[in-house]
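Exercise: predict the structure of this protein bound to magnesium ion.
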Amino acid sequence: MNEVTKISETMFGLGIESTAHTFSCSIMEYDIVKRNGKIISEERSIYKAPSGSGIHPREASRHHMDKSPEILKQCLKSANLLPTKLDIISYSAGPGLGPCLRVGAVIARALSSFYCKPLIPVNHALGHVELGMMLTGCNDPLVLLVSGGHTMILAFANKRWRVFGETLDLTIGQLLDQFGRYISLSSPCGNKIEEFATNSSHDYIPLPYIVKGNDVSFSGLLTAAKSNIKKGCDIQNLCFSIQETSFAMLTEVVERALSFTQKKEVLIVGGVSANTRLQDMLTQAAERQDAKLYSCPLNYSGDNGSQIAWTALCDYQSNHRNIEIENSFINQSWRLDSVDVNWRF
Ligand code: AMP
Ligand code: MG
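Solution:
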């Protein structure tokens, strides 16, 4: 275990995100006394798949390799900080695409060993949740994590984020992106589908609505939506109907979880949380349950390095533990509910 490199009231952490389409570096400052943080600088580059195709892991990892030098250099430059001034180096260790995760891990290991800084692996889903809480200021929320890689309803209990419900097959992001690619949009497609839905005549086309207990399933909905395209249905109304159906499913399970847990806050994080129709539905559900909806600020709803830097700073402050280079890892299917969160009570 490395020594704490600096005793001071603030710490600087570098976070590297590379789980899927985004390569991002962020430098955050952590105030040890006030236990709050500030994003000093953040840079991102997003891999764009050709229209009609999904993320190709090898091509995305090549993008990350190509872009990482300028992103890291620019991040340090904007923060006006030398790498020697960093207190910790962190990287997203999973879940995610293996070749992409390896890029962030290799860069983090190299920086950590060259500059003798503690190395912290971060669970990417935890990063979405923790940065969302920090930026919105909520205290004890029921969380809806909706992104390309996740669809989960979470509540904190006994040191871990517990899964109250999740998807049984596709994530909501996969539903939107796979349908979008089917109609030849470029991935990620969620914002274009939202635009089509908003501009549609709002004529609802019936689609399968599948909620099992507190879990949801989107694969039947995707198959039905695709077959409606073959039948010649209007694309904009189909986008509207996909949103109405899938978001109503999510709202149902969130409302049931709210009623059960009696939480007074709902936090929505992940790239799909940018969707205003989903936010509207959840706001109404929260009001019915006497709770308030908090939505991660748009610029931080998708994947970014600040999620990793912030979570690592909280983690390191809570236990001063880091990982030896030879034990550092990536885990493509690292579940959020297997991670101890020692800084929450
Ligand atoms: P993330 O994995 O957190 O970076 O989120 C990426 C996912 O968010 C992709 O599946 C996008 O299609 C989706 N997304 C981004 N913006 C929107 C939006 N306005 N509405 C719905 N989904 C969106
Ligand atoms: Mg994500």
